[in-house]
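Continuing from yesterday's entry. The apo prediction looked reasonable, so today I'm repeating it with pyridoxal-5'-phosphate included to see how the binding region is handled. Same sequence as before; SMILES copied from the compound registry.
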Amino acid sequence: MVDLQSQYQNIKDVVDTSIQEVLNSSAYINGPYVKEFQADLEKYLGIKHVIPCANGTDALQIAMMGLGLEQGDEVITADFTFAATVEVIGLLKLTPVLVDVEPDTFNMDIEALKKAITPKTKAIVPVHLFGQCANMEAILAIAKEHNLFVIEDNAQAIGADYTFSNGTKKKAGTMGNVGTTSFFPSKNLGCYGDGGAIFTNDDELAHTLRGMVNHGMYKRYYHDVVGVNSRLDSVQAAVLKAKLPLLDTYCDARRKAAMHYTEAFSTNSNIITPAISVFSTHVFHQYTLRITNGKRDELHQHLLDNNIPNAIYYPVPLHAQKAYQDERYNESDFTITNQLIDEVISLPMHTELDEEQLSFIAKTINDFIG
Ligand SMILES: *Cc1c(COP(=O)(O)O)cnc(C)c1O
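Holo prediction written out below.
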């Protein structure tokens, strides 16, 4: 699905030098590279505060802790996403409220969101799925009306640009009260281990979060709040500092590969190619097709038989996962997610795909379900 080895070969010199510097310095935790990468990312995103942490799941958890969400508070998120989002809601004993998604963008459905709001709702967690932003203008308006926090799960869309109807542009992850991301190796900005970050423009919240990621300490060995141990290590920061200047180029490469696929499938009536919303650029963390003739599973096997990697993101909606089942949920509220899990298939998508590979993959698919 991803080709991290070829990408590494192209940046080997700078990455190797940075990592060697960390090893020589022995500042393995909170060394200079962490601060430098933090500052670089703040500049890139146009945000006041980036708080690096250990992974994208921790980033979500710490963001919710920092906002002071408490047991029983309802947090609304999408039914069609990676489980991390709902996992931390559960861990913190908050009440997850899952809502259906849009069939074309796979992002949170605005009408479903409105319907899910109750007096107990405290926060909305839009997930910018597969690389493009949810409808943030609508989500922010609803949040304002009901006095709710917005936490953007931006693990899959770092680098995407959102344009508001008045023409204002913002980077994905910088529009809500707080945004989170993951630097897991296969993400668009990936390190060589685990990593994550939290973004905010709120000075007070930033201060709270900075202590929370480090055992609740604001002064060494003085623990003012209950925190966690969640730090980005210096080796990962060195890798990320080297890769951040390439992020836009990486996103362009992914878009180019996506356009090749979309063009190749444009006349295939059994395939729906990814929709691109009017308000967000797409950075194609995943390139996800919908197969509408019922042959998705056969295609999955056929591609494997032809040594073409592919994956089903996601095979089970969160509301139906064993860990998250709840009698509050009605199947009739999840008609789109329930349909998508039978139709979606994600194709190889990374920065090193060449025309020959793309053509071969597209031809194999078109020949099978033309
Ligand atoms: C990857 C991912 C996460 C979790 O990130 P980790 O760094 O793996 O903990 C959270 N949300 C979404 C949508 C993701 O894709």
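Comparison notes:
- The mean pLDDT is 96.
- The pocket of pyridoxal-5'-phosphate is lined by residues 55-57, 81-82, 84-85, 127, 153, 155-156, 182, 184, 194, 196 (CB under 6 Å).
Will overlay with the apo model tomorrow.
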